[in-house]
Amino acid sequence: MNRRGIWWNQGPSNKPKGDFMKNVFAMIALLISASVASAHTADTSWEVLMADTNLKIDAPVVFMGHAVDYTFVCVDGKMLRTKKAVAQRETIFIGKNRSKEVITGYKYLYTPINYTRTVSDCKYIGKNREVCTDKVVSGTYPLTVNVKVSKKMSSRNDTYKFLFNKALTVPSCH
Questions:
Q1: Where is the signal peptide (predicted)?
Q2: DSSP string, 33-55
Q3: Which one of 86, 107, 112, 142 has the largest count of C-beta atoms within 10 Å of its C-beta?
């Protein structure tokens, strides 16, 4: 023993260094397996995926006066309808330069699954002349769509990492 009470052939710890490294590697392996076990897959239910605020669900949209995400619609007979009533807003003017948006009520939005619409088909003739003709467009909204699921990597600059694609079947309305 030396003057400080330490055995000559021992360091400050009585444990060999190999045990410490084994514990560090075991801890790293445990953390990796825990993160993999909590990861979402294409088999994860839509309820769980929608509840996770760190996921971005990129679904196609349905046109109901404006674009409505497929995750927010259901089937009501031969129509697609919003799952919840949507706020109806109106802009009122106060004085000359001020306006205020007020909610005038709530209603469900509908669109037919099999639709026919008239759209303007416009072409430029020359530099300044635009000629438009009405064109009838027909189509069918699919009841099963492919949705892209991504995970938020950084909230600072909204970066996401693609995880998987998952099929979403539009449910019937209750």
A1: 1-41
A2: HHHHHT---TTS-HHHHHH-TTE
A3: 86
Beta-carbon count within 10 A of 148 CB: 15
Q: Which two tokens stand for residue 160?
A: 């996401």
Q: Look at the chain and count its residues.
A: 174
> What would the two tokens of residue 84 be?
């919840």
Look at residue 65 and tell me if it is in a domain.
yes
**Which pLDDT score is estimated for 25?**
61
pLDDT in tens, 62-99: 999 889 999 999 999 999 999 999 999 999 888 888 89
Classify residue 31: in a domain, yes or no.
Answer: no
pLDDT of residue 36: 43
What are 111's strand-pairing partners?
80
Domain span at 54: 41-83+110-169
Domain count, the chain: 1
Share of the chain above pLDDT 70, in %: 79
- Adjacent-strand bridge partners of 142: none
Q: Which amino acid is at 25?
A: F
Alpha helices (H) in 38-126, listed in sequence order: 46-51
Measuring CA to CA, how many Å separate 41 from each of 32, 46, 51? 16, 11, 14
Are 51 and 40 in contact by the 8 Å Cβ rule? The answer is: no
Question: pTM for the full model?
Answer: 0.65
